[in-house]
Write a structure and sequence with these properties.
two-stranded antiparallel ribbon, globular, three-stranded antiparallel sheet, 264 residues, mainly alpha, hpI Integrase, Chain A, 8% strand
């Protein structure tokens, strides 16, 4: 899985034409092959759902996947009436290039595994998550149940474009993260509080599925002379923000080899 910090870093460095695929994988949990074949006409914006046509699914069964609020915000600037969502031929190569740039180790099926795990922690409905993921309930129970907690899930689904931009500026020291003005916070404000060490009040979005109840505080740390934030419960060794580029590059090269051999 990716930690919240790792996804924030990836989102902050992603090219505009890669962002939709990255966001769909991270927040909706679609398979890589499904993302590659998605068309903008598959997005039912009024219903807040993505239609995964039977022709592009692994199981050849049509399903609908809910778009959380954060996913909608990431996709709206790129929204089209029709046409391919992903403009490149090789999705995995683009993800691996991004991971190497960010100094993050890419892991097999990591976006899908992350999205499903965080959804289980947030929704608490194994059957519903299984249906949208195109998996069995037994698979969800065996591999995704109790992998992360609710606070981590809330922080994951609070990663809006504004929240990531605030994080990026805070890392460069040009725009310190301000404390919240009041207790009526949107999702991005909750992430701001997580990053800034302030408590976040309970909040539930319109869908009731992406509500954030995060009082977690980051632990201050320093990576190679640069101030950073380490989230409790997340790995920070080789997966940290400042992991050596050479290490990430070699690991991602190995991951790419596995993908090309048909194991992705």
């Amino acid at each position: 899985m990716f930690s919240v910090e790792e996804l924030t870093n990836l989102m902050s460095l992603a090219k505009p034409d890669v962002i939709p695929a990255l966001a769909i994988g991270a927040f909706a949990g679609l398979r890589s092959e499904e993302i590659k074949r998605l068309d903008w006409a598959d997005f039912k914006w009024e219903d807040g759902e993505i239609e995964i046509r039977a022709a592009i699914t692994k199981t050849r069964i049509r399903r609908l996947v809910t778009m959380c609020d954060s996913l909608k915000l990431w996709l709206m600037p790129h929204k089209q009436s029709s046409g391919p969502v992903f403009p490149y031929q090789n999705l995995c190569n683009q993800f691996l290039k991004l991971a190497t740039k960010a100094g993050v180790k890419w892991k097999r099926n990591v976006l899908r595994h992350s999205a499903i795990s965080y959804r289980v922690a947030s929704w608490k409905s194994i059957a519903e998550v299984a249906q949208e993921a195109g998996n069995s309930a037994n698979m969800i129970q065996r591999h995704y149940l109790r992998v992360v907690n609710r606070k981590q899930a809330d922080a994951w689904f609070a990663l809006t474009p504004d929240a990531v931009e605030v994080w990026r500026k805070s890392q460069s020291g040009t725009n310190p993260v301000p404390p919240p003005a009041n207790g009526n916070m949107e999702n991005e404000d909750i992430l701001h509080c997580v990053l800034n060490g302030d408590d976040a009040n309970a909040h539930t979005s319109e869908s009731g599925r992406t509500g954030c109840r995060s009082g977690r505080k980051p632990v201050a740390g320093t990576h190679e002379g640069r101030s950073s934030l380490i989230f409790p419960g997340h790995q920070t060794d080789d997966h940290r923000l400042d992991a050596p580029t050479g290490t990430a590059a070699s690991e991602n090269f190995a991951a790419n080899a596995a993908i090309q051999n048909g194991r992705h």
